[in-house]
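Supplementary Methods, section 5.1.

A reviewer requested that the exact input to the structure prediction be made available. We therefore reproduce it here, unchanged from the version used in the analyses.
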Amino acid sequence: MPFMPTLLTSERADRAPSVLGARQGEEAEVGISEQKRPIRIIIKRLCLFCLFMYFASLVLWIAGNGKIFLDSTQVLLLRVLTLDAIALGVFSLAGIGTLIILPDGHRQGYRGIALLMLGIGGYLLLILLAVAGILFGVSLTVIASGTG
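The structure derived from this sequence is encoded token-by-token as follows.
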């Protein structure tokens, strides 16, 4: 029988995977691990982006603190720092939510619990950093505006 790559015989059609990865006649099951992966990756990257922006605005504020920048620029950097800290806190809370709501099916036992606690601990540290940034930015903005 000659090789025909575009046509499938009836025997091979049963073994050929469909679009969702299931054989013909079977229902395609998309597991929770395949559904959670993109949202977890997106949240982790958003947290890293907000953390980078947080430190970048903090470094720029520290560099401009020696009267290199104008006072209005310093206040703007403090506001950006505060907004970055708020976003970092929100995305960290979302990260904790995805860890709790979408558990890993392949991580069971003590190792799975330890990795879950490690992930939650990391997000909690980011939340503490965000709260410190919010308090720092708001307090210095109030002092700079002269109403404190």
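Residues 32-145 form one domain. These observations are discussed further in the main text.
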